[in-house]
Amino acid sequence: MSNAIPLTVLTGFLGSGKTTLLKKLLDHPDMSGTAVIINEFGDVGLDDKLVEKVEEDTILLPSGCVCCTVRGDLTRTLQSLFQRHLAGDIPALKRVVLETTGLADPTPIVHTLMTDEDTYRIYQLDGIVTTVDGQLGIDQIEHQFEPAKQIAIADRIVVTKADVADAAALHRLEHKIRDLNRTAGIVRVVKGDVTPGRLIGLGAHEPALAGTDPSRWLAADLKPRRDTIVLSEEAHDEHTCGPECGHEHHHHAHDHTCGPDCDHDHSHGHLHGIRSFALSFEKPLDGNVLGVALQTLAAAYGDKLLRVKGIVTIEGQPVPFVVHGVQHIFYPPDALKDWPRDAAGGPDKVSRFVFIARDLDEAVVRRHLKPFLGDAMSTAA
Hints:
single chain, Hypothetical Protein Yjia, Chain: A,domain 2, 10-stranded mixed beta sheet, 6-stranded antiparallel beta sheet
């Protein structure tokens, strides 16, 4: 396990409910010891909770949280927080939540946390949480690129206003979300009311260090995903269903995968060229060759690779490795403690990758990888 401070990026389009969600999270006792980095205090409406001013851009909240604005460079803000934590000037930091503006692209934040030597290993990116308006989400996705990308690179997606949105519209929205991102868990919320554990502690960007379940992290199969949970003020179900779940959750509205007779429109129109696809490799891979293949793929198409996630079997290695990239940059491969399990409960040694890309077809990626990994590549994901 890493000793780094986990950092969650909270993003979402204008009016999608980030403010309501953040205020609810900060009220929860499990969020004490949290530093919340926001753009402007007024945007979050925390003035009535101010109890002590620490510095010009920092306040302490009754919940035991610290709030600060980004004044200039994000790295300097994170370093300043850490130094004040070490000096005891603020409550001991357990985690950080960084809220972006509604039009922000979270990718530069991810790149900073992956590459900046002053913050790497002090902070560990735990996950990207994206809020989506349950009423207006489809229209926003179809007409704006920003919310589509925010969804595409998310690790957890929060569908807000689930109490006022039409049930059929919510299903259409979640299918649209699945077209953009096949791996992120989806949670429905009412008035921002959600248990912090659904959004915090995901271990999504360095799953080996965080001890994350590799199968749930990758979620590359084409089976129905049963992880869309309805949370309301009346009923808080603390169970997140996986593909193997056999529970009867009648009050849930689970996502489902349509069959050949489904009349939903799953075309990639209005998705701004963003698509998600998976590749699998039946034979063990040469680690050096794989590294070259991914480096050249990033060099050629990095601006189009929004996210790459993989669990791979390497020749001569007793355990699988995690591969994870965001556009041009890949995390160093890290070994998992054990193999994912197959349907029979045995070790699943098939290498699998999930690609989320913009204006980049699966066929192009296959053609690029074939000279390097062609003998091991499956004909279908």
